[in-house]
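Quarterly update, task 2.4: adenosine-5'-diphosphate-bound model.
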Amino acid sequence: MSIQVLSEQLASQIAAGEVVERPSSVVKELIENAIDAGATTINIDVRESGQQLVQIADNGAGIPASELETAFLRHATSKLHTSDDLNAIHTLGFRGEALAAIAAVSKITVVSRAEKDTAGTRLELDGGFKTSRDTVGAPQGTVIAVENLFFNTPARLKFLKSTTTEKRLIDEFVTRYALAYPAIRFRLVHNNRITFQTNGSGSLRDVLVAVYGPETARQLLEIDTGKEKHSEEEAVTPSPRHPVTVSGYVGPPSLHWANRSQITLFVNGRWIKDNSLTYAVIQAYHTLLPTGRYPLGIIFITMPAEEVDVNVHPAKTEVRFRHANMIFGAVQKAVRQTLVADSPIRSVGAWTVGSGESASPGWAGALDQTAFSRREDWEHQAGQSHLDLSWPIPAETYPAANVDTNSTPAAPLANLGGSKLPIMRIIGQVGASYIITEGPDGLFLIDQHAAHERILYEQFMAARQNDAVASQGLVAGTAVHLSPSQATLLAENLDMLSQIGFQIELFGPNAFMVRAVPAILAKLDPARALQAIVDDLEQGNTPLEGQIEAKIILRVCKTAAVKAGQTLTTTEMEAMVRQLEACQSPHTCPHGRPTLIHLSVAQLAKEFGRI
Ligand code: ADP
Ligand code: MG
């Protein structure tokens, strides 16, 4: 075939492919146009998941009669005039492509009236060609009906997913934009049935209820960065030069999903896809969620328009940040702080807002002081306990309540102080596995292994942050033999192991001599502990250094923790509960399982038929 310039029609069909991939892209582009036009009401009508009809009506600025045809030309936009404008985009649209692209692959009817026009104009296009134009009576705003999508691009038509998938994608777009614009009243109608609507009250809470239902919405935690105090040297610190704010809502660790679909990100009011920022949210839940489960987050990032490039792809959902690391840090920190500040205790039959309620002023004040003095008692007692629950690190590195934490660098566990648990009285142990306590409102059952894992993990991390991990020398040393591949793995990580308290030397081919172990492992078999660590390293390839260390620390804490089936004395139980009180995230073990469950007085009364 000889080289030829494509016909205008074919060229627009090809270009259209990038902008309108499927019916939901039409919904997205038209909603964005309505938002840019300043609409306060947007009605979306969809038939057969958008394949038959997508109609969007708004009460925005409208398109002047004299410009209506122009709006459907490629690269025609009212939002951008000079190349300087491209450096700081303040509108959702700017490429002037959407209307042309949609028109090229569908039949369009548009009715629009701008404020200054006395009447509306109705225009019909078929495959991008004008078929009629009339003057009609119409309120200010725009109604665009898109029918027979992809009628002239059979290849695209073939690739559409099932109507349920396409419908879900449309729902996703509409709900996302509703979340980002609570002051706009959205209504989505599917095959003549209203499937979603918001009231346009301006309250994000109202939209959360509309999207997630009252039960889930009630549990969501508002991201509160107000508490944040930045120190000068922190890389994540937004400065006057780079002011970045992170707001929105995140789910408590008790809400989790099998995939990342519940993490929604907006930058300056634009919904974006960004793997790295999604990961920042997930990472903020480190050790709080069961493995393989993902949280819910609706994250709004605002920053100066010139700090973000939205002109990356025609669909405008990918962006580039000028300071990507700073944004990553800001998101992760904001989410983490919200979680640390408020995480609920699992209760029997339901979730209670444990810390929320117990944080009432009287309670919290009493709690801090008592927890403190009781801990001193405990430290005294723990020395005499035959099960060594005390932790041999200097007392000043202990993560205590009321500690000034501004000097602590941001780390997986920001040291914010303040106990998340009520004071509890030990009642006893059941099944040699669970500690029963009484709190201000009923009973608590504590999983001794999970709780101890959490305690050791936080203490270990605190010590690690201060380079104060205690190490216990082994008088004779212990020889460990490994398979060649495991030996290589261990040899690669010797340096890092030494930072967390191991001292291991090469001792012949595939053999090592363990000279010291982290102090919490002192009373355990070093060979078995090391073997467990190497087994962990072998499973799942974690390429990141930080992750390897975290994995090893988790294993060390798991190994050192009291097991289920171990009988504890009251003193030991006391010690454990006091230490759990001092934890930042006492409600879950580092793997995300609950450490304690709550049976409230009301629940007891209900169970016994008293109410
Ligand atoms: P872009 O949004 O990138 O400018 P579009 O092709 O989506 O490109 O729209 C072209 C132009 O048509 C817009 O710049 C705007 O002036 C006008 N327009 C489109 N939709 C609307 C609407 N709903 N209300 C008012 N004007 C609109
Ligand atoms: Mg547009």
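Highlight for this quarter: The first strand starts at residue 41 and ends at 47.
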